[in-house]
């Protein structure tokens, strides 16, 4: 995402960064640990991390957190209208490479697998974000699966990132007067202590990406 991935995806938020910057666990490293190398993990390592997150955290599971589990869920939707034909908006918007430089901190998208089943395209990917924090760059890996339904003009993305933040997204493209209405249906799962922060910052990040993509599409840059 920008999971990404947020990404395109949902980013690691400031409260979580305090954890990752101190502990630097798998999936989050400081750039100083790698001589400022932006590719802190090789693609095979990222693929292994992705598979571990998929198997262990089951971020594809849309079951709400159980009562008393210490985790909460919040659902919300945001929309924007883009002055362009739906097929064009969909093609640009659903390509997460186009979110680089427009989604907050997103610098790279690594695709692990890309295949089709019926009329649905599946993409397993990791979105890499470089986030400034207290004079360092914290590298955050958000693992995701995107499912693109081109004929129906919508796509879905499930993501997981440290510290246990899960998002489920459904982005729908509808023809309206004046262009295309893009509606993002967003579901955030996180620990009770983080959920409000995750939602506030996650929604703001998605709104920033929406606005940047709108400008790029309407200007003809994308």
From TrEMBL:
Q: What keyword terms does UniProt attach to this protein?
A: Signal
Q: Where is the signal peptide?
A: 1-23
Q: Which InterPro entries match?
A: START-like_dom_sf
Q: Which Gene3D superfamilies match?
A: 3.30.530.20
The question of whether Signal is a record keyword is answered with yes
- Protein's UniProt name: Uncharacterized protein
Q: Which organism is it from?
A: Thermocatellispora tengchongensis
């Amino acid at each position: 995402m920008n999971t990404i991935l947020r990404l395109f995806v949902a980013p690691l938020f400031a409260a979580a960064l305090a954890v990752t910057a101190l502990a630097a666990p798998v999936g989050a490293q400081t750039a100083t640990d790698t001589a400022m190398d932006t590719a802190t993990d090789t693609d095979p390592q990222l693929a292994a991390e992705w598979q571990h997150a998929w198997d262990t955290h089951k971020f594809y599971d849309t079951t709400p957190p159980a009562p008393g589990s210490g985790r909460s869920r919040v659902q919300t939707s945001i929309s924007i209208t883009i002055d362009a034909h739906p097929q064009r908006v969909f093609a640009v918007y659903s390509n997460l490479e186009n979110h680089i430089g427009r989604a907050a901190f997103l610098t790279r998208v690594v695709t692990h697998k890309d295949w089709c089943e019926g009329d649905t395209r599946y993409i397993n990917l990791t979105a890499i974000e470089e986030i400034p924090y207290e004079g360092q760059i914290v590298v955050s890996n958000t693992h995701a699966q995107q499912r693109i339904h081109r004929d129906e003009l919508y796509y879905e993305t499930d993501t997981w990132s440290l510290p246990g933040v899960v998002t489920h997204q459904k982005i729908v493209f509808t023809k309206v007067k004046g262009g295309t209405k893009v509606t993002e249906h967003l579901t955030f799962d996180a620990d009770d202590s983080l959920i409000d922060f995750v939602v506030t910052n996650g929604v703001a990040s998605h709104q920033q990406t929406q606005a940047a993509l709108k400008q790029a599409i309407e200007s003809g840059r994308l």
